[in-house]
Amino acid sequence: MFEGVLEKEIAEILFVVLQNDDEESALEIIKKACKEDIIDEDFDIYLPELRLNTPILIAIAFFNRAKIINYLLKQDYEIDRSDFGNTPLFLAAKMGHIESAKVLIQNGADIDYISCFDQKLLLETIATNLPQNTEMCELLISSGAKVDNKMLEATKAKLSEAENEKQKKAIQELIAKIESKL
User: Where are the membrane-spanning stretches (predicted)?
Assistant: First the structure.
């Protein structure tokens, strides 16, 4: 199917298919390309939002495609591969992609990852997901992520940003979970 097709063209096709929420088609393309040894874990997809070429597993996490992540992990792709400070879980968590994060955590992704910029996964997740979404923070904590006082203070600071009582209550519950782990 891909005979004579350049990697760049496959990357462009995958980007369009992933962007259009067609996970099944993307998975079929990836399966065929893997079978024919056209792509491996070093295969990059250009992500305009990040302005860089990104290793395939990180790009798939960016698009929140849990089935494809699961497939690539079964092909022995490196789960904690880092690129410009992002691992698949780091990016999925910052973006609030619960399903992808669950697959990555279930397969052993490092939930206490610290990026090359000295950013802790849970702390970055607190900064980017609160006050709107506490679910990702709760997932990381319930999966065993280490908490510290800096994370507690960052979560408390988000209380003032709560837009309604529901958000305020969710953040208060998250604060209680963090305090129980200290």
Answer: none
